[in-house]
Amino acid sequence: MTNPDLAAAIDARCRLHGEFILRSGQVADEYFDKYLFEGDPQLIRRVAEEMQPLLPSDADVLGGLELGGVPIAAVLGQLADAPTVFVRKKAKEYGTRKLAEGGPVEGKHVVLVEDVITTGGAVIAAAQALRELGARVELVLCAIDRRPPDATGLADAGIEVRSVFTRADLDAARANAD
Ligand SMILES: O=P(O)(O)OC[C@H]1O[C@H](OP(=O)(O)OP(=O)(O)O)[C@H](O)[C@@H]1O
Ligand SMILES: O=C(O)c1cc(=O)[nH]c(=O)[nH]1
């Protein structure tokens, strides 16, 4: 497991219990509120430090996904000295009308940065949009991968996932804490 102390800290801070409607429409009895670690300067830095070795050397640009992927991408971009763009769910309909803010993506190897992956739907949508803009997108780095072990959607879309924590990592951290 990646850094059990950090897993325990993230789990203790972010795992909420209740009834939650997820982005995908699924209903879950647990929710990882990423903003509770992203707002903590020490925790977000520690997560980004764990993510840095997962970043391939041929990445041109980090692409932080609105909203929760953006702060992680910004911190990782600082640590790795990597140019970073901020990928909206939908391009603005005024101003520059951009989907990806912060620099060009055409012809670039864009590595996505996401907070939580449940079905991969948000990542696939962002990857498709960036590909339409001419980017090469084949990898997402995420803080928490809570997909079921048999999920294939991202692989089917040609996207590899490298996560700091899987759901199993956080479950193990929780079990150790009990
Ligand atoms: O893998 P999926 O099934 O797509 O679910 C995970 C997505 O859902 C959340 O997005 P949401 O739009 O709720 O969050 P945010 O704007 O607060 O980041 C989360 O940040 C991921 O982007
Ligand atoms: O699937 C989601 O929408 C989701 C799950 C989760 O645990 N945390 C989150 O921010 N979003």
Give the topology, please.
Layout: H1 4-14, E1 15-21, E2 27-32, H2 35-38, H3 41-51, E3 61-65, H4 69-80, E4 84-87, E5 100-101, E6 110-117, H5 121-132, E7 139-145, H6 153-156, E8 160-166, H7 167-177
Parallel strand pairs: 3-4, 3-6, 6-7, 7-8
Antiparallel strand pairs: 1-2, 4-5
This protein binds 1-O-pyrophosphono-5-O-phosphono-alpha-D-ribofuranose and orotic acid.
The site of 1-O-pyrophosphono-5-O-phosphono-alpha-D-ribofuranose (PRP) has 15 residues, from strand 6 and helix 5.
Binding site for 5-phospho-alpha-D-ribose 1-diphosphate: 23, 88-89, 92, 114-122
EC number: 2.4.2.10
Function: Catalyzes the transfer of a ribosyl phosphate group from 5-phosphoribose 1-diphosphate to orotate, leading to the formation of orotidine monophosphate (OMP).
Key attributes of the depicted protein:
six-stranded mixed beta sheet; binds orotic acid; alpha/beta; 7 helices; 178 residues; two-stranded antiparallel sheet; 8 strands; globular; Rossmann fold; binds 1-O-pyrophosphono-5-O-phosphono-alpha-D-ribofuranose
What does this structure look like?
- The model has no long low-confidence stretch (mean pLDDT about 95).
- Strands 5-4-3-6-7-8 form a six-stranded mixed sheet, with helices on both faces.
- α4 links the parallel β3 (about 60-65) and β4 (about 85).
- It has a single domain (about 5-175), classed as Rossmann fold (3-Layer(aba) Sandwich), CATH 3.40.50.
- The protein has seven helices and eight strands.
- The chain is of the alpha/beta class.
- It starts with a helix and ends with a helix.
